[in-house]
Amino acid sequence: MNIYPLLRPLLFSLDPETAHEVTLKLLKISDNSGLSQLLYPTLPEKPVEVMGLHFKNPVGLAAGLDKNGDYINALDALGFGFIEIGTVTPRPQPGNPKPRLFRLPEHQAIINRMGFNNLGIEHLLAQAKHSAYRGILGINIGKNFDTPIEEATEDYLIGLRKAYASASYITINISSPNTKNLRQLQQGDEIRRLIAALKEEQLKLQQAYDFYVPLVVKIAPDLTDDEISHIAHLLLNYEIDGVIATNTTIARDAIAKHPLAQEAGGLSGAPVKAAATRVIKGLAAELHDKVAIIAAGGILSAEDAQEKLNAGASLVQVYSGLIYKGPQLIADIVKAL
Asked: How far apart are CA 104 and CA 108, in angstroms?
């Protein structure tokens, strides 16, 4: 039963961040009351093996929707093959001043400059521990806004160590445009040093816990071909398990005439679709299936998802598409695969 077309006008009449919070609370109420079982029938399994993990289907939730892990059970009811929570930082932080979230319905797009607002990794891990969810759980980690960029590696190491025992895989977010200087971690020797340190720690943790948790790097859609090639070679050299392509874009070409075009932040949704697919194709040409590619960016239909898979991705993640299409988008993609 697809009730989202009825709810969307009401949600879109609210401030975007308020609508975000209301939607998650409604999902939780629906799940706790058993209503979710009526609204979201069980989807057919379309199993895939990626990074040594078994996914019941290739459609996941991108990080950012549930930053603190407060709604894992409710989101599971929607039929996702995997859920990624975060971005979470070592210490709690409020994020950027409001307003910091903007809808552009004409473009099926969103601009956000949330700034890693979250309650800290200890809260997220407590929520994950008490969740009934037993599917694939990704934990997306970042650095605190007030940690100097030259000390960023230590924040990521803290996140990796703390999340390791609770995560199916861990994503290193170095591509958000909303934390000052964060994106420079994708360049030159900075990314090499970061990846080397995290890989070394991952292997130490594998020995300590006697199990292996894959490591994934999330990159931007605004990289040049040379930067994509450089990152691909590092992923191969350090045997990183996966890469998420992509985060939001700072480009505004597709929405240049929109009154919100000059708002700072990352642009997601339909306008980032082509850029994300370009990055996936560039990665696929270099990685030769040795590093898993997870597609994110501009997936608003089953056709969009198939385009990402055809470009070289093994899994897809949705976020902005959910805002515009509702949970039916998950079912549409899974059934079309």
From this structure: 6
